[in-house]
Structure prediction request, 116 residues.
Amino acid sequence: QVQLVESGGGLVQPGGSLRLSCAASGRSIFSINAMGWYRQAPGKQRELVARISNIGRTRYGDSVKGRFTISRDNAKNTVFLQMNSLKPEDTAVYYCNAEYLDLVFWGQGTQVTVSS
Prediction:
């Protein structure tokens, strides 16, 4: 089992920045195949935001490339999502996920709202 707790969401103005954190417990992130961030806006499907493998390989959704950065702190068993140049269309619930063996675990989600 892997437990995931997200934090760092909130309200920010367009052009602003936020950093999301996802703390994993139950397994070291060394043993987790990959961790990622997904988001879901009202009325839309959940989509990939960013993903980082256990060897540090990253992948980003097209809409966030160049603005968002995923990183990991192995000592803290935590994955981060640095979000810069935020746009109103980035408004969504952001979910952390972990791929462990053939299982996928999800956090409870954190709301990000970009509005003036």
